[in-house]
Amino acid sequence: MSIAELQVYSVEEADVTGGVCVVRCVGGVARAGQVYAVGESRMGLRHIERYGRPVGSFDAGHTAKVHLTGAMVALLTRGQVLTSVPPDGHSLEDLEAWLATGPPLRDEPHPRTLRVLAGVRMRDDRLPDEVRLRWGRIALAATHRCARAEGTPALVRAPELACVQGYLIQQFGPDRGGDPAALARELLALIDLTPAQAAAQGRGWRDLPHHRIRHLRRIKSLIPWLTAVRPHLPDADPVAEAVDAWSAVRPDLP
Question: What local confidence, expressed as pLDDT, does residue 1 receive?
């Protein structure tokens, strides 16, 4: 992601929530959804107008009226330069606060970028466990945002969600990492076949239409995450019995 710079020409209006400024882009491409830094403060670029019409972006050498969020807007001065913050420059606290507002999917960092960033931090064993858990929650939120942005069907997005939640359970245990039974039930609910039906189809999968083969492969992709949480399930639990049944038929699936 390129880094954009905006130079303030004037502050048209401002209050504790944000305001409207006339700015000139002096570097990169300014886009609605970006976050800009002034020292330790952050401002969100929510809306751009040029010649009285909304636009999604504008580049170096052009001016625009921009709607910024954040109390810092009222303190901006003529000539001050605002710099966009790339994803790896966002602090954990910034991202948590930003996600809590339910920002539009077009806002940066975009869902897929945020998921990658949070996934890397979640797996960084140099960080304290509690910090990794917080990054894990951001990774889960980003994965849900990816599904909404991309219109992904539940069965297709399930492996990504299970990858994050399963990792947290494996690394931090069921108390802090999540509910193994809830994850297993969620994944099992997405499967529209019984283990016996899937095994029967799997044994003759080469004769199936392509869409059925893909469907069986998506089911198969869920089974490793079911198996991963199995040690945390009581043997007498019906969910555990279902997980065992699916684990047994996995070799028969394409």
Answer: 41
C-alpha to C-alpha distances, 20 to 70, 79, 141, 146, nearest whole angstrom: 11, 15, 30, 30
205-252 confidence digits (pLDDT tens): 999 999 999 999 999 999 999 999 999 999 989 999 999 999 999 999
Q: Give the mean pLDDT of the chain.
A: 89
What is the number of other CB atoms lying within 10 angstroms of the CB of residue 30? 28
CA distances in angstroms from 127 to 113, 142, 166, listed in the order given = 20, 20, 19
Q: Which of 248, 105, 114, 237 is nearest to 179 (CA)?
A: 237
Report the C-alpha gap between 27 and 40 in whole angstroms.
21
94 with 22: CB under 8 angstroms?
no
DSSP 200-212: HHHHTGGGS-HHH
Cβ atoms of residues 37 and 89 within 8 Å:
yes
Strand pairing class (41-50; 35-38): antiparallel
- pLDDT score at 132: 94
Q: What is the pTM of this model?
A: 0.67
For residue 43, the cross-strand partners are: 36
CA dist., res. 152 & res. 175, Å (int): 30
Please state the length of the chain.
254
Q: pLDDT tens digits for 98-140?
A: 888 888 887 777 788 888 888 888 999 889 999 999 999 999 9
123 closest CA partner among 136, 109, 141 = 136
| 237 backbone dihedrals φ, ψ, rounded to 5° | -70, 130
